[in-house]
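Per reviewer request, we include the raw input and output of the structure prediction for the construct analysed in the revised manuscript.
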Amino acid sequence: MAIENKVIQKNFVDKELFRIISFFFNIIKLSIIQPEKQTLIHYLSFIPRLPYLSRKDSFLIMERFTIYNPTRLHFGEGVVDKLGESVRKQGLKVMLIYGQGSVKKYGYYDRVVALLKSNNLDVITYGGIKPNPVIEDVRDAVELGRKEKVDVVVALGGGSVIDSAKIISLSIASGYDGWEIMKYKVFPTSAIPLICVLTLAATGTEMNFAAVVQNNKTGEKIGFVNDLIYPLESFLDPAYTVSVPRDYTAYGVVDLIAHALENYFGQGEPPVIDQITFDIIKDAMKWGPMLLENLDDVELRANIMLDATLALNGLTRYGKANGDWGVHMLGHEISLLYDTPHGATLSIAYIAWLRLQKDRIPERIIKLGKNLFGVETVDDTISGLRRFFQSVHSPVKLSEAGIGKDQRQKIINQMNKNEVSGVHHKLSQTDRELLIDFML
């Protein structure tokens, strides 16, 4: 009877799970584009109705979780036209943060400044944020913002610009040093409002509570999370990303896939979230290569832009205690040492990390392979991911990024110094050495 009940329960869960999976991904997309319909909240009300099995049943492993995301997201062509109105509600003196020139080259800077000034806003600008953002730029911007007594920060750019702007907004409001904040040595209680205009689809920072900045003096590149750094509003017009060159478009696709995988390999295995994660990755693997051959296609840009947001706005972590983030920690050290583009470090590190974990979590890796590539083994899963990264011309070896074998000990020393590890899958010194050998 016990066996029969378990079979009945499992069959019921199978049926219910696949009934809702088919439309859940589209519901999530709709809830972001049309938040007034509250489709996400409506859908989530169904989740408690699914049978919850204990860990020993090993069918559903759902951790406790809380959903919180206060960012208002505007998505689609033309949405940036409403930027000035949104900013004006937060104050009259604006600090516009941007990168190293591409936004001026392609006209986005002039467009945004015009929108702000047409709403009678006083605009103070700070440019020059680097692709691997540094705390020195954050500090300089904070000094300017405090001097000018700005009311609101507008970030025009990709992940590096927005991440920097997050720390800038915290530091201006609190009076604390940005690095002290990121090291959790001081604890701000407020931030000035942050509004974003995204120009690169990759990181998901436009709708999350995380930021990554490096300190070249201390030799650290670290992540920081705090509910205060959720952007108040973000404007995602895919037309603002058509100028992104082929290599950085590819790195953005790799980055969004890596974000989904970091949560997939975290603590907790809720089936419905696993399936959504697979769908996001498959969507990126479908549209990404097409986009690389049609860089001016706004519709393809839109698909990748939304995939990137969904991969790291909290969705792929529902039902999990945490993500792992060990691969990102590996990638950060390579970027810190060699200024390698972030996405390129992730394609290198993920293949190595999967090779390290192949005998430790084979079932989890095989489940990934079955859903992404229709394969049945760990090795075939790793090969499938490697082939995809190679197909978009993202490196899978350090040598392909111009880093030779003579750098082995330098990288190992750097990773040991900063105790690189994952949250869920811990890494020992021996593990780090193996990982570097796999990367070389």
